DNA sequence: CTTAATTAAATTGTTTGCAATTTAATTTTG
DNA sequence: CAAAATTAAATTGCAAACAATTTAATTAAG
């Protein structure tokens, strides 16, 4: 019943205080960044055993998702789609290539570019992978509507965050 | 009370199998996982220059957030709070210690435990850090209400994802 | 045309995450 | 009490992310 401890006091302060001066602004559970970070890690852990059956890690799966949509893309195009750079993608692609799901080849028209293409094994893998999103949806205990709504919100946030950097 | 909390995110399961057979289920822009992953990375990039001024990386900042709330915690307690294990935390904490913001010391009562405590420099850093959340909120171009709502939704999702793993 | 600027990947080096194992301390059991 | 089980960190090894640099190819400028 004692209301005079620090926590109760700070959380019951008048909302007139500017956000920048709010003592509670640094509380972990208030941070959107941490909510994102910890949710993303939790999601990756949920995917891990499912993707292990396909022989893929989570970032490798993302690469395959792009290739199943659009085969024969450059490393840059892949990077624009996934918001990753060649420093991340080059070794990642080499590992997927070693797994046998894709091929990397210099473009004939422009030797600077590397074209990433699916192998037959890579195309075949899609059939198995189609079950993954369903399994994850079940495990996350969310309706498809909720998943879609949150996904849309996050796309908007991501746009704002990327715009906020260059401004 | 139910093991899975009664939030808006955990109410219903996907209705039936059709989702698994939907050809569009694998489209990158439909994936909640990728929305989370890419948003989280974008958020980290936004924080990076701000935290660099404090001499911290983003995960190091998260550790400091916990310590500013509760000083003198074990590595395990830190891990429960951040959803990270000792394999991640031990080297991370050593780097923050090298920066001079915290100390690591074996507990006298239980020599297995390591107690992590703030130094004076670590406590002082909080004053500067208080401005960070405000700067990020501005850059993300979201209202505080939107940020709070999304944070709450993500906490619920995270709970579901973690529960979904062990089930 | 040929030198300079630009572009695309790859490389290098640092910091995460995390599974699996190891080490050391504490508890539990027999 | 002593061996076994458990627990807490640390260690090891691998796979991302990413900044910064390098290499090689293409394009632009003089």
Automatic annotation (TrEMBL), chains A, B:
Q: Where is the HTH marR-type domain?
A: 29-159
Q: Which UniProt keywords apply?
A: Cytoplasm, DNA-binding, Transcription, Transcription regulation
User: Which PROSITE patterns does UniProt cross-reference here?
Assistant: HTH_MARR_2
Matching InterPro entries, A to Z? HTH_MarR-typ, MarR/SlyA-like, Transc_reg_Sar_Rot_HTH, WH-like_DNA-bd_sf, WH_DNA-bd_sf
Q: Which domain of life is it from?
A: Bacteria
Instruction: Identify this protein by name.
Output: MarR family transcriptional regulator
Compartments where located: Cytoplasm
Primary place of residence?
cytoplasm
The major lineage groups are: Bacteria, Pseudomonadati, Pseudomonadota, Betaproteobacteria, Rhodocyclales
Species the sequence originates in: Uliginosibacterium sediminicola
């Amino acid at each position: 019943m004692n209301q005079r401890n620090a926590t109760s006091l700070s959380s019951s302060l008048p909302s007139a205080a500017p956000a920048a001066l709010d003592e509670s602004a640094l509380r972990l559970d208030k941070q959107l960044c941490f909510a994102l970070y910890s949710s993303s890690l939790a999601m990756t852990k949920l995917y891990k055993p499912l993707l292990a059956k396909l022989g893929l890690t989570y970032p490798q799966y993302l690469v395959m998702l792009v290739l199943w949509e659009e085969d024969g893309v450059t490393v840059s195009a892949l990077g624009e789609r996934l918001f990753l750079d060649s420093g991340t993608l080059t070794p990642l692609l080499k590992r997927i290539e070693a797994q046998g799901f894709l091929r990397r080849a210099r473009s004939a028209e422009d030797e600077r570019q590397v074209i990433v293409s699916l192998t037959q094994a890579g195309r075949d893998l899609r059939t198995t992978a189609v079950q993954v999103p369903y399994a994850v949806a079940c495990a996350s205990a969310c309706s498809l509507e909720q998943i879609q709504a949150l996904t849309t919100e996050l796309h908007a946030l991501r746009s704002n965050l990327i715009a906020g950097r260059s401004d």
